[in-house]
Amino acid sequence: MRLPVFLLVLLISSFRVSAQQTPEEKIAALGFTLPPTTAPIANYVKWVKVGNVLYTSGHGPTNAQGETIKGKLGATLTIEQGYDAARLTGLQLLATLKSAIGDLSKVKRIVKVLGLVNCTDTFGDQPKVMNGFSDLMVAVFGEKGRHARSAVGTNALPNGMAIEIEMIVELEK
């Protein structure tokens, strides 16, 4: 199938604009804003940087009103609600990342992600839930946002939150 020339030009020009946007501009173009960073809920730090690698602690989903999204996938939450919670958690992680490095353009690659999904024993769609996070990272960072990932089901998370995600990020030197 051949694309009309005007459609091809439109696609190429929109790719160029998208490729030239900073991650922060992409977040805004997606209709999101980074939330304020939160303090740890126990005796740990939100991130540790070793060389050009940044490790984050587990983060959970907090909505615009500052409320934690709580619940159990397969019982009180749907896959779609879990997907949204994972995306919110991604925004929390991006806010922490930005506070740690100052500019999200310094991200060389999202390397590894561990996603914990609060769910029933019979729930098996953890990867679909975690796609909320992964889709956001790819939308913000493009190929740099593609990462290795584990999506694990668990019977409980701190404060009853629905999702907990941690990530490892390689930074530009």
UniProtKB/TrEMBL annotation:
Keywords: Signal. Coiled coil: none annotated. Residues 25-158 form the Endoribonuclease L-PSP/chorismate mutase-like domain. Residues 1-19 form the signal peptide. InterPro entries: Endoribo_LPSP/chorism_mut-like, RutC-like_sf. This is RidA family protein. It comes from Phnomibacter ginsenosidimutans. The lineage of its organism: Bacteria, Pseudomonadati, Bacteroidota, Chitinophagia, Chitinophagales.
